[in-house]
Design the sequence.
């Protein structure tokens, strides 16, 4: 059917290869999947989408869809001959045409008989919950309704691939959440391959079968939402996928599939993480705030970590900041060596600023990133 | 803090505040300049031999001469509008959407065509295409032997040609700005659904920019029918009488003020109706800028066809600029204009118009003085009116704003008729003085001043002024130290936009001048009327030289920030 295969795709604007929007990007999108291109603004995700659509030509590399060569450096099938659908960030619903006229446009181009076209428009409008608004002009519709018109306009021609460029970013939070659910449902029902661009990691996690994290024009990781969130392939991915704490450490030994680590402050722990790091190498332990436990530490101070202990999972710390976020509590705690950790707990567990706590890291949910030889990174708190 | 505030407020109550006085003065000025003359025009048109009467309107609507003038004006306006699209739209599309070579040439062609005074172009074309003596006609008839190729410029065709050269930039300007602001995703959405370039252009782009194109066309129409000079120079010899020339004729002794007023009001109705439609279309244009980031449209690669477009533009440039000014220069340097004019090149004509023709120097001084004063006053008045509209909540400020825009709907000759009606009944003798010309110019071009000030003021957040007030600065001091420095580039642009048309103003001046208050444009026209072919060309070139110097100075002085205001005001539709 209609999978997309990108090989060695490169594109730079203004001929400056140092500032490539997309650099040597290879990515396979399977048929019928919901794949998200995720990354910060300017990372090249929209360029990638526009390359797939055929609005721009790659400097190098190829794009195949369903085995057919669509784009290569010298040869580009124009967008109108690709049979794809696209939903734009600003909807691009033509303001001078009614809802019906917008949606029927693609069918008219395909010379679908009027009666059938009317029937199909009606069906598609029902699919996106717009029944009864056929004769409205886009100016009379809300943002969410315009977004559905744009969707209907793309879906009515039954494309095998639908490209969506941040389609929800102009909607308010509540509507965004509802449209998110509808999009996912729609994709499941129609079986169309969705290529979805967003900078919102929560959106990507909620919607996708696969997430392709793009940064600096390069593909950083392709995986299921779980893989990308829990096992980020690099610090860049970890950073982008949500809050993360990074603790500088040294890998001491590998033992029985686990690695023994010692942090800068001398805190040792066994962690169950994959990776190619070898003993003696400097690494960073990445742990998400929700994978750290806090316990009240009353009376007896467990004291300084004892290096002779094989695995000291607990570490004394002091609460320096506490923020109530409704469904969770967020704390900043300072370890003995001054490193700050960001921790999220159930709101039932309350600590006050200045409270002495014991910190415990869930070492099965950590990631390890190798630090380049030159890099001597300071202990870092959470990065958003 | 609180006591200080109280003292300040109490002090303000005791004497009338400076800002109140300034604003009141601006309002009074606007009333005297625009509102009262219009009222007197209205009164004059319904005052018959015996009290109130509609006899003037009856005659204006039934007399063959007047109906013919009305029809001619409408025909002229319609053809001009149509050809403005035919020339302006392809050029706008070329620069905004294609990889046409030398896009700067397109913009320069449009700008120069707009700035070039139509009555000078008309004089130039008479020298080339008058039926008997026009150089090109003579050449075609006597040398080539193809009399059927000759072109009589004293015709509706000639009038449309010369007028279009001045008005197509309105369509060009509005269409190209609309084309640039159409969000590319509108077109991409059509493409991805399977529409090719041509279909996308016809089904999506064209409907989106249609309001802007129509608005430009209406501006072209309004400006075209208001031009007295070209219509007198080309129309009268060909017996094509239009509204401005008919109204002008009514001032031959004995002047028929009532009829002139009635015709003027009909003229206003046409113009205002067109401007109202233009406003409506332009308001609909707002939807072309809807949307978020939207990628810039890709330029269409035209291949070899781009040279065709370039050729088209070069042809327009030749017809609008090279041909008329080449002809004027040639005529001005020749002893006797004809096929062998180059055998007797001379500077005598310049010597004559500059040093022997005693009108020229006076006219130059008058024009420079009037243009400087009119531009300065119009801009200052515009700044105050704009400030009231943008910054205060004063009651009736919208009305004030509309009143200041009314002159856009007043053709120059109508403004002159209104001023005559008003000031003839006043106990001060202004008729024939420089003052009445000054009043006419300020009245006509106040909309440009208001537009420039409005645009600049809207770009400056009110908090910049408020923070000065909070720190204790008075209104006058805030104005002097914060507001005026910030809007100066915009005001300067507005100043030039008034200065340039005033120095070539003919339509109103022709009814208001006297031998002592003669202006440069009137001097050119009068010299032409008396039949001096070669000296007229020399004087026309002197006129152009002065305009060019003013424009070059403007270009040199204008900062980048001044430009948006300038664009906006040009769109408001000034004409000479």
Sequence:
């Amino acid at each position: 059917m209609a999978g997309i295969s990108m090989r060695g795709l490169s594109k730079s604007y203004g001929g400056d290869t140092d500032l490539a929007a997309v650099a040597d990007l290879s990515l396979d999108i399977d048929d019928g999947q919901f794949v998200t291109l995720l990354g910060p603004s300017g990372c090249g995700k929209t360029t990638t989408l526009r390359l797939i659509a055929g609005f721009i030509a790659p400097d190098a590399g190829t794009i195949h869809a369903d085995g057919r060569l669509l784009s290569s450096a010298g040869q580009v099938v124009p967008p109108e001959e690709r049979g794809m659908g696209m939903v734009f960030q600003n909807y691009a619903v033509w303001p001078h045409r009614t809802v019906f006229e917008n949606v029927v446009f693609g069918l008219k181009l395909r010379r679908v008989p009027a009666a059938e076209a009317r029937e199909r428009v009606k069906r598609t409008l029902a699919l996106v919950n717009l029944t009864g608004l056929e004769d409205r002009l886009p100016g009379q519709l809300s943002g969410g309704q315009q977004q559905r018109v744009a969707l209907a306009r793309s879906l009515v021609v039954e494309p095998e691939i639908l490209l969506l460029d941040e389609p929800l970013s102009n909607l308010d939070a509540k509507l965004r959440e509802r449209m998110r659910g509808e999009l996912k449902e729609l994709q499941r029902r129609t079986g169309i391959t969705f290529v979805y661009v967003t900078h919102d990691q929560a959106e990507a996690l909620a919607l996708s079968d696969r997430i392709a994290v793009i940064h600096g024009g390069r593909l950083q990781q392709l995986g299921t939402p779980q893989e990308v969130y829990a096992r980020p392939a690099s610090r860049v991915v970890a950073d982008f996928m949500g809050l993360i704490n990074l603790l500088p450490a040294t890998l001491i030994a590998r033992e029985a599939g686990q690695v023994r680590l010692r942090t800068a402050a001398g805190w040792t722990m066994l962690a169950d993480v994959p990776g190619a790091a070898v003993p003696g190498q400097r690494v960073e332990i990445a742990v998400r705030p929700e994978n750290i436990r806090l316990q009240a530490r009353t009376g007896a101070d467990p004291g300084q970590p004892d290096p002779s202990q094989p695995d000291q999972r607990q570490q004394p710390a002091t609460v320096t900041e506490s923020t109530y976020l409704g469904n969770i509590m967020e704390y900043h705690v300072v370890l003995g060596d001054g490193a700050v950790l960001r921790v999220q707990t159930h709101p039932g567990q309350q600590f006050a600023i200045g409270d002495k706590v014991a910190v415990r890291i869930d070492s099965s949910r950590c990631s390890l990133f190798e630090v380049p030889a030159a890099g001597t990174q300071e202990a870092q708190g959470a990065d958003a | 803090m609180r006591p200080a505030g109280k003292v300040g407020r109490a002090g303000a109550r005791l004497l009338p505040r400076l800002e109140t006085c300034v604003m009141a003065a601006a309002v009074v000025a606007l009333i005297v300049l625009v509102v009262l003359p219009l009222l007197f025009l209205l009164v004059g048109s319904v005052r018959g031999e015996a009290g109130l009467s509609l006899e003037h309107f009856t005659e204006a609507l039934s007399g063959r001469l007047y109906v013919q003038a009305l029809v001619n004006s409408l025909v002229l306006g319609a053809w001009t509008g149509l050809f403005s699209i035919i020339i302006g739209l392809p050029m706008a599309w070329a620069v905004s959407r294609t990889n046409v070579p030398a896009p700067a040439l397109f913009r320069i062609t449009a700008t120069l065509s707009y700035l070039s005074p139509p009555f000078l172009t008309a004089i130039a074309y008479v020298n080339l295409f008058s039926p008997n003596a026009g150089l090109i006609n003579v050449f075609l008839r006597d040398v080539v032997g193809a009399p059927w190729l000759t072109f009589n410029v004293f015709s509706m065709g000639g009038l449309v040609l010369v007028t279009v050269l001045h008005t197509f930039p309105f369509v060009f300007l509005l269409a190209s700005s609309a084309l640039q602001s159409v969000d590319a995703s509108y077109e991409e959405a059509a493409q991805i659904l399977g529409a090719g370039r041509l279909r996308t252009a016809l089904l999506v782009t064209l409907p989106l920019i249609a309001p802007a194109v129509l608005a430009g066309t209406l501006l072209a129409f309004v400006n075209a029918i208001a031009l007295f000079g070209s219509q007198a120079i080309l129309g009268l010899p060909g017996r094509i009488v239009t509204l401005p020339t008919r109204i002008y004729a009514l001032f031959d002794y004995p002047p028929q003020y009532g009829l002139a007023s009635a015709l003027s009001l009909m003229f206003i109705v046409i113009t205002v109706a067109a401007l109202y439609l233009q406003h409506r279309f332009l308001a609909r244009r707002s939807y072309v800028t809807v949307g978020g980031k939207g990628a810039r449209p890709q330029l269409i690669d035209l291949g070899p066809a781009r040279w065709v477009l370039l050729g088209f533009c070069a042809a327009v440039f030749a017809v609008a600029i090279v041909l008329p000014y080449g002809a004027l220069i040639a005529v001005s340097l020749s002893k006797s204009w004809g096929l062998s004019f180059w055998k007797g090149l001379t500077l005598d004509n310049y010597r004559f118009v500059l040093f022997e023709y005693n009108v020229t120097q006076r006219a130059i001084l008058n024009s420079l003085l009037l243009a400087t004063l009119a531009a300065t006053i119009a801009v200052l008045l515009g700044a105050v009116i704009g400030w009231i509209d943008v910054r205060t909540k004063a009651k009736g400020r919208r009305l004030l704003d509309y009143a200041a825009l009314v002159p856009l709907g007043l053709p120059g000759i109508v403004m002159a008729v209104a001023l005559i009606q008003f000031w003839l009944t006043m106990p001060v003798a202004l008729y024939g003085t420089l003052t009445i010309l000054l009043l006419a110019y300020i009245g006509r071009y106040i909309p440009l001043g208001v537009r420039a000030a409005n645009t600049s003021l809207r770009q400056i957040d009110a908090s910049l002024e408020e923070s000065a007030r909070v720190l204790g600065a008075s209104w006058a001091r805030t104005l002097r130290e914060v507001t005026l420095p910030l809007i100066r580039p915009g005001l300067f642009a507005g100043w030039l936009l008034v200065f340039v048309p005033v120095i070539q103003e003919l339509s109103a001046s022709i009814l208001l001048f006297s031998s002592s208050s003669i202006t440069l444009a009137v001097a050119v026209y009068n010299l032409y009327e008396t039949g001096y072919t070669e000296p007229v060309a020399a004087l026309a070139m002197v006129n152009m030289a002065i305009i060019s110097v003013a424009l070059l100075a403007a270009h040199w002085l204008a900062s980048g920030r001044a430009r948006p205001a300038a664009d906006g005001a040009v769109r408001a539709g000034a004409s000479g």
Remarks:
- Chain B touches chain A through 25 residues (CB under 8 Å).
